[in-house]
Amino acid sequence: MIEIKVLGVGCPNCHKLEAMCSEVVRELGVDAHIESITDMSKFMDYGVLLTPALVINNEVKVQGKLPLKPTLVNWIKQAAK
After folding, report:
1. Domains in the chain, start-ordered, CATH in brackets?
2. Residue 46 DSSP code
3. Distance CA 3, CA 19 (A)
4. Residue 57 and residue 77 in contact, taking contact as beta carbons nearer than 8 Å
């Protein structure tokens, strides 16, 4: 199972990133758990300073911006291997 974590304080881009992840997981039909982390003290566990941030299988993929959907698809496909 792929572990996907969206780190953010609840801003519109944080919600958009979470929705994008759900959409891609659904489209690819992969087994994934998506978690939204809003506790800023936990951000430092991943070395994240900017939100929104995306962590896939404990690897920070992006922070401070939204990835393009094809990039997100690629990351999730790679994690599913």
Report:
1. 2-80 (3.40.30.10)
2. G
3. 15
4. no
